[in-house]
Amino acid sequence: MLPNCDMISQDDFFKPEPEVETDERGFKLYDVLDALYMDEMVKSIRNWMKSPTSSGVLTEEPQNTCDNLKDTEDVYILIVEGFLLYNYEPLNELWNRRYFLTLPYEECKRRRSTRVYQPADTPGYFDGHVWPMYLKYKNELEENASNIALELPTSGVGARGKRSQVAASSAHSFLLCSEHGNHSAVP
């Protein structure tokens, strides 16, 4: 991780299960904006931007910091990760840099099957809800979003490290060349 780097995860803003709608097939609709407290997420990001040193956001301890970043003690980075970041307009005003990582169906399904969710995915949930919603929001993103710094498709796990290296390199270059002030929000 980079020095002075914090992270906000969209998963931390899910509504409790009773507040999440259910479709006609009985699937809980977690992969929609209405399943999340998005206003709270925006508020958390804005609070961090106002005062990154006292925001209360998860702070990662730096590991293997780059020599080039040793003189950037006043630079603070917020990484915001999530699956619907670019589909919520109030967030789009906040980004300094945007990355969209894609996975093919097989790899996404494999990864989803290894995660433990509460409540657990019901049979058919991935194919009946998760993947169709991913495609819907990805299409919306392709039609409406601009300023995506990088789209990094991959064919599977082997490329995951490469994607991370490319994104980290791009973010590092952005920080070294940035004239956007001392605070950066990077989804």
Task: Give an overview of the whole structure.
The protein has helices at 38-50, 89-92, 105-114, 125-144, 160-177; strands at residues 5-9, 58-59, 76-81, 99-101, 150-152, 183-186. The chain contains five helices and six strands; from the N terminus they run E-H-E-E-H-E-H-H-E-H-E. Residues 59-67, 153-160 and 177-184 have low confidence and may be disordered. By secondary structure, the protein is an alpha/beta fold. The strands form two sheets. It has a four-stranded mixed beta sheet, covered by helices on one side.
Write the layout of secondary structure elements.
Blueprint: E1 5-9, H1 38-50, E2 58-59, E3 76-81, H2 89-92, E4 99-101, H3 105-114, H4 125-144, E5 150-152, H5 160-177, E6 183-186
Parallel strand pairs: 1-3, 3-6, 4-5
Antiparallel strand pairs: 1-2
